[in-house]
Hints:
Blueprint: E1 6-8, H1 16-22, E2 36-39, H2 46-51, E3 57-60, H3 70-75, E4 79-81, H4 88-103, H5 106-115, E5 137-140, H6 144-153, E6 160-163, H7 171-175, E7 178-179, H8 183-188, E8 192-195, H9 209-214, E9 219-223, H10 233-241, E10 245-250, H11 263-269, E11 279-281, H12 290-308
Parallel strand pairs: 1-2, 2-3, 3-4, 5-6, 5-8, 6-7, 8-9, 9-10, 10-11
Amino acid sequence: MIKDFVSVTDHIKNFSIENNILGKYFQKNLNKNTTIILVWHENINDYFLEKYPSIRAVIRYGVGFDNIDLDACKRRNILVANTPDYGIDEVSDSSIAMILALTRKINAFQELAKQNKEYWLGKEFDLNIKRINKLSLGIIGLGRIGSSLARKFSAFSNNIGFYDPYLVDGYEKIFGFNRFDSLSNLLNNSDIVSINTPLTKETMNMVDEQFLNQMKKGSYLINLSRGKTIKDQQLILDKLISNEIEGYATDVWQNEPPLENDNMFGIWKNNDLKLSGRLIITPHTAYYSEEALIESRTKACKTCLDVISNKKIKNRII
Length: 318
């Protein structure tokens, strides 16, 4: 007799991967018999768990798990696991692409090419461009993605530093990077700052006025972590308009999708010339490739099988 049934809470429309791996354990429709759930965006909280009292395990398709109320799961002795080792190349590739687009002013040059044919003939332009091998990269969070980004950026510049108080001493020797003992020191000494942290109580609202004031004048900020690491996007917008920050690129937003009255999103959407080529926004898709999506779903389903078989869960959170 089958004791466990696995269902998907949201987002996935075609269940071919889940069916192939989970077989008899998979149920297309979430119901009161479901004991294990595969989660994408759905908020797993007290309200949700009260509706489905048989759930004993929550498996997140992705890396972040800020949409899962861990306290609510703990109270019910529900196992929670994620899938942190997929899409690493995709996100770090996206970071590199954003860094290159901002520092080489690719999008700004596109606009100039449209505006005036004289730019094709040497017309002067006023863009702040420096050699990338003269720029330093500061990474906040040297986990899987941060490490992948550092390795790839080293093809352009060896001037790489990081701040990660959770890494044991010695990682800086292994990688040959400069380790900063405080966030402020990293911000003071980095031309490009990349945020590669999970969303936790510590990183929530991390990018505040003090954070931005400590960044080097004319530096760049890249955020492919979570939107709520930013306290107030207006602060970043003000820094861009005043030219204290040269560029900002993000794949995440405080509210996804952005609210209709969001000032920064509106200015970007309307192609405001003040920020031409200096603001890049993508819709939380840095993780994506066909291969990454298959990897994520496959690994999450195999975690479900491990739960069913009472095997050790590699990426268990609680």
